[in-house]
Each structure stands twice: as structure tokens, then as C-alpha cells.
Design goal:
This protein is α/β, with parallel strands linked by helices. It has a single domain (11-71, 78-370), classed as Alpha/Beta hydrolase fold, catalytic domain (Rossmann fold), CATH 3.40.50.1820. The protein has nine helices and 14 strands. An eleven-stranded mixed beta sheet has the order 4-5-6-7-9-8-10-11-12-13-14, with helices on both faces. α2 crosses α4 (205-216). The longest helix is centred in the last third of the chain and has 19 residues, at 322-340.
């Protein structure tokens, strides 16, 4: 990849105000971030790759990280709050790959660690988008994971995989798993990633595909999803299987965040009760985690519902703000992978322990179940 830089922009905090931080990025308007978000320095470059395809790379420094390794007393690395950015700086790249199992060409957006407490190899996390939703609505998840030392990527599989007309979830799940194969072929991340230690996260249809991919790819060692929906509308059951009925075949840790505002109502509920997150949890073997986010709607898990368009307007209106639900979801995703991909039992506290109770259960934000 060419190293010629066409543009760069630096963001920096210009004034902390109570629990808010105002950030200015070059000539861009100042933005306001609430407490719990870590301000970062961002440099974005666009380079021209061989063959003429443009590649965007963003290098971001997590506030306070400095790239220095830090350990707590006794030599263990300090436990980081999953509700905030972690200690790693990261870069972002865009690419595409052809999935061998399907022949589909899918776009990839990847965030990966560049400087931090360890040099890897890092676990890999693939994030699958919801039905007809853009992967860019989940970039916040891959960026948060990168700051915790994960090679994280979105995969833009076709929602209508049968000739662009009808769904084929079995094929789309192979596209999701096929994104893992992109990692060893990309020089920026090939030596950084452990592709035998993979997690998959997905929203809505992408949540179903995450579980389905795990049934066919043994590299996937954990799955945590965002309001998964086990829909099979207008689809041959052989191509769109009942995945909630297959959960007992998975012997890996699984988790699902969800909501019930969209369990009923409207012409077609966005996450009908018969196919929602609770059905996946009911069939799952231990260890399994269920987090019902009270006041969320099906689209609340996106990075920015306001830019979602008509599709999001078809779902119920939430009573919790988008930013709050998104922040909660990112924290659970990070804590889940820290616990199960890195085997750090300290994160049990953030998932089901006293910290989760104080932060989410006692304020009435969530109902948490585990088995």
C-alpha cells in the first residue's frame, strides 16, 4: 500500500467543562462528548493502493495511553473500564475481499492496535450489520475493541444473498466467517492477529448470522450479539434455518443484548417476540448471558440512529437515548470478550457482578440473566 498522505487532521480537547469535553478537529465544528467517553487524537490519511483503489487509514491515540505498558501490583495488567476507551492507539483501513466459500465480494472496514501495552498477537472480532443497514453504523464498536487490543472489522455481506432478491442466511453466515480469512492476507494486521481466537458480534439479522457462523467455523470461540432476530421471512428453511433451535449445538460462551419494545406492534415488529434475543438465550448452553436493555428499541444499538433513515423509523420509539444504549452495548461487548477470549475473570464483575448491578441493574437500565 502506498504511504503517500493526501490529508491529515488532528483532533484535540480544547476545554473540559464539568462532565463534558469539547473537542475541535481542525476546521471542523467542535463536538461535545459526555463523561465516560475518552477523547482521542485522530490523524486520517487517504492513500492510493496499487490498482487504483483508495484506502483510508486513521491513526487514533487513546487518551492517556501513551503506548507505555503498565501493570498493576503483582504483574497483572490493570483492569480497564469497558465503558471507556482502552489503552491502545489504533489505525483503520478499508478493503474488500472475495469469500472463497460463496464467491461474494464483501467490503471490510478494520480497526487494529498500533501502540499499546502489548504487541499481540491479538484476538479478532468480526461485526455483522443488521438487515439492509450500513456497516458504518457499527464502526464505534470496532474502534472501542481496537483500543482494548483487538483486530476488529465489519463485513458488508449482502442482506439478500440469493441473487440480490431473496435472503440466504446460510450463505451470508459463510460471508461473515469468510471475513476472518481476509486478516492473514493484509500486511498491516497479518502478524498482529490470532485468527484461531475469534469473536463475532452482530446486530439484528447480523446477530443471527453470528451464531450461525459459529456453528460452521471452529475458529469462532465466543459470540455476543445486539438484539438478534431469528427471522426467516420469504426464505426457504434450508437457506434460513431456525438458529435459536440450534443454540444447544454451540459449546462456546454466548451472549445477547436485546429489548422488548419491538416485540410487537406495527405492520411487522422489528424484533418479534417469537424470534427475539430471549429465544436464543432460552436454547443456549452455559455459559450464556442475556441483557435486556429497558427503554431501548431495536435500532438503539446503532452508533447514530439520527442518520439511519427510513428503516429505523419503522421500529418503535425508545425511551432511552441512543448514546446511552450504544455506550452500554459497547461496554458489554468489550467486557464479554475480555472475559471469554482473554479469560480475564475480573470482567465477570462488569457482566454479572457488583459493577453491573450498580451501573445497570439498580438504575433500572437493564435486566441481566446468566447461566
Amino acid at each position: 500500500m502506498s504511504s503517500a498522505s493526501l490529508r491529515a487532521r488532528l483532533c484535540q480537547v480544547i476545554a473540559p467543562i464539568g462532565v463534558l469535553a469539547i473537542t475541535a478537529c481542525g476546521d471542523a465544528p467542535a463536538t461535545v462528548e459526555t463523561a465516560g467517553a475518552t477523547t482521542t487524537g485522530v490523524a486520517t490519511t487517504t492513500t492510493q493502493a496499487a490498482g487504483g483503489a483508495a484506502t483510508t487509514s486513521t491513526v487514533t491515540g487513546a487518551g492517556g495511553a501513551g503506548g507505555a505498558a503498565a501493570t498493576s501490583a503483582g504483574g497483572a495488567p490493570p483492569k480497564r473500564d469497558p465503558n471507556q476507551d482502552g489503552p491502545y492507539a489504533y489505525a483503520e483501513i478499508d478493503d474488500e475481499t472475495q469469500v472463497a466459500a460463496t464467491g461474494d465480494t464483501v467490503a471490510i472496514h478494520c480497526a487494529y492496535p498500533t501502540v499499546g501495552p502489548s504487541q499481540g498477537p491479538y484476538p479478532v472480532v468480526v461485526v455483522a450489520h443488521g438487515y439492509q443497514l450500513p456497516p458504518s453504523q457499527y464502526y464505534g464498536y470496532v474502534r472501542r475493541l481496537a483500543t482494548f487490543g483487538y483486530v476488529a472489522l465489519t463485513v458488508d455481506f449482502p442482506s439478500l444473498a440469493d441473487g440480490g432478491i431473496l435472503p440466504n442466511h446460510a450463505r451470508s453466515a459463510r460471508d461473515v466467517a469468510g471475513a476472518i480469512d481476509w486478516v492473514p492476507g493484509r500486511p498491516e494486521v497479518a502478524s498482529l492477529a490470532n485468527t484461531d481466537l475469534v469473536g463475532v458480534t452482530g446486530h439484528s439479522l447480523g446477530g443471527k448470522l453470528a451464531f450461525l457462523a459459529a456453528t460452521v467455523d471452529p475458529r469462532i470461540k465466543a459470540v455476543v450479539t445486539l438484539d438478534p432476530v431469528d427471522t426467516s421471512t420469504l426464505c426457504d428453511p434450508s437457506k434460513c434455518p431456525d438458529v435459536s433451535g440450534m443454540m444447544d449445538t454451540l459449546s462456546i460462551p454466548v451472549g445477547m443484548l436485546g429489548e422488548t419494545a419491538d416485540a410487537a406492534g406495527g405492520l411487522q415488529p422489528c424484533a418479534p417476540a417469537a424470534d427475539n434475543f430471549a429465544t436464543f438465550f432460552a436454547g443456549a448452553k452455559s455459559p450464556a448471558l442475556s441483557v435486556e436493555v429497558l427503554g431501548a428499541s431495536h435500532m438503539s444499538f446503532l452508533d447514530e440512529v439520527a442518520s439511519c433513515g427510513l428503516g429505523c423509523s419503522l421500529c418503535q420509539k425508545p425511551t432511552l437515548g441512543n448514546a446511552l444504549v450504544n455506550r452500554l452495548a459497547k461496554a458489554f461487548v468489550v467486557a464479554f470478550y475480555e472475559r471469554w477470549l482473554r479469560a480475564d475473570t475480573r470482567y465477570d464483575d462488569d457482566l454479572t457482578g457488583a459493577e453491573a448491578k450498580a451501573r445497570y441493574v439498580d438504575p433500572g437500565l437493564a435486566v441481566i440473566l446468566s447461566k
